[in-house]
Amino acid sequence: MLAAMGLTLLDWRRRVARLYADVRAAATPVEGHHLWRAGRDRLFAEHPDSPLEPADRARFAGLPVASYDPSLRFDVELDTDLEPTLWEVTTDGDGVVPFSRVGVAHLQGLCDLDVWWLESYGGGVFVPVRDPAPDTYGGGRYLLDTVKGADLGGDAAEGHLVLDLNFAYNPSCAYDPEWACPLAPAGNTLPVAVPAGERTFHEE
Q1: What pairs with residue 87 in β-bridges?
Q2: Does residue 93 belong to any structural domain of this protein?
Q3: I need a labelling partner for 128 at 20 to 30 A (CA). Which of 20, 60, 142, 170 fits?
Q4: How many domains in the chain?
Q5: What's the pTM value of the predicted model, to 2 decimals?
Q6: What is the pLDDT of residues 117-153, one digit of tens each?
């Protein structure tokens, strides 16, 4: 039983990685956004590891996502001239999950966001984001989680990342409280509402 569950999760992560590869290869960010929306809808509707609870899956008609806003896409060079910072997240299943801050992304005209490196499971870039919009998940959404395939590109060898707020998505715990998800810390909390990305699925 556990082996079968592990293989379906492997399939989920492969599909997510392929989806983001298609997004990065798209002719335009808008086209990539359409692919991303359609791909996530298919995963949530059809995949055995969908985080939707059974009642929600039965009535699922697509994830609520705002229309694409090109002004919210940033190809940024990370500011790495900063003091080392460790962020530790305590979870039920994985114990303490450590992250190190590897840079700050200055999103021109909007805010700064901390960029984190996962110090376990082989590592990966992680960028959560929280904003005060009334129709976004209160614990914050994710922009990048490269260990799980969510990677929007950028010349990492040159210190660049693409941070596109239109691709902000809800973590699995926003759909099912059985999931444990790192929530956005202070350095990833925006002072203004962001009218982009995935919105709240459940009515509050």
Answers
A1: 99
A2: yes
A3: 60
A4: 1
A5: 0.92
A6: 999 878 999 999 999 999 999 999 999 999 999 999 9
